[in-house]
Amino acid sequence: MVVLDHVNKHFGDLHVLEDINLTVKRGEVVVVIGPSGAGKSTLCRAINRLETIDSGTIEIDGVSLPAEGRPLARLRADVGMVFQSFNLFAHKTILENVTLGPTKVRRLQKAQAREQAMALLERVGVANQADKYPAQLSGGQQQRVAIARSLAMRPKVMLFDEPTSALDPEMINEVLDVMTDLAKDGMTMIVVSHEMGFARKAANRVVFMADGKVMEEATPEEFFTNPQTSRAKDFLSKIL
Ligand code: ADP
Ligand code: MG
């Protein structure tokens, strides 16, 4: 579903992505973990084409990342992204947040979009908040709406960039539970997160990044119990 082949990117002198090779199969859940500055967010942004790359290729479902125009809009719709900050439209209701993309980009009829949105809000457990505005919801609820909004575009793959790191501790699990359900339903997911419980429960693979490189790839069990590189050991000793 997602294939990165010899991907390189620089920010000036900084080699932020260095020869990244990564394959994520349909239905697979990959958790990306690593210290701050490793290039994890840049990796997500490159996959969603929010950042260009200098060399190498990125394919989504067999299609090479197009440069611009309509194919790019199409590709963006295929790749859902949920960020640390919830990024909901503040002046739209919860329901409008979820219907906007499908009516504008997917050209869904209003009634259909509304029906789909209510089903998705139900799925993430906030259907009863549909007529409220984002500021009236808790962080955990807002993040679940952000997930519903992404799903409304019927993406082929979902990227999550530290989706729970801005949340109060008691709200982390309600978001992780939604993500775990999504994983069980067979969604292809790339998740930047240091939540080990989630990785153990939902991930097929953990990818450890540092200094712009993929340093290790292993099952969660292998990675957390027997990391191979000193960088990973050092990192784990700090977060455990
Ligand atoms: P992570 O998400 O793993 O913390 P990032 O991908 O955000 O890492 O950043 C990797 C490195 O690239 C960091 O050193 C960061 O300062 C740098 N960086 C990120 N975005 C930019 C940018 N737009 N311009 C210049 N440097 C950037
Ligand atoms: Mg980041």
From TrEMBL:
Protein's UniProt name: Amino acid ABC transporter ATP-binding protein
Domain named ABC transporter: residues: 2-236
Pfam hit, one: ABC_tran
Recorded family membership: Belongs to the ABC transporter superfamily.
Keywords: Amino-acid transport, ATP-binding, Cell membrane, Membrane, Nucleotide-binding, Transport
GO molecular function, one term: ATP binding
Keyword Transcription recorded: no
Membrane topology: Peripheral membrane protein
Entries under Gene3D superfamilies matching the protein: P-loop containing nucleotide triphosphate hydrolases (3.40.50.300)
Subcellular location: Cell membrane
SMART domains per the UniProt record, alphabetical: AAA
SUPFAM superfamilies given in the database record: P-loop containing nucleoside triphosphate hydrolases
Coiled coil regions in record: none
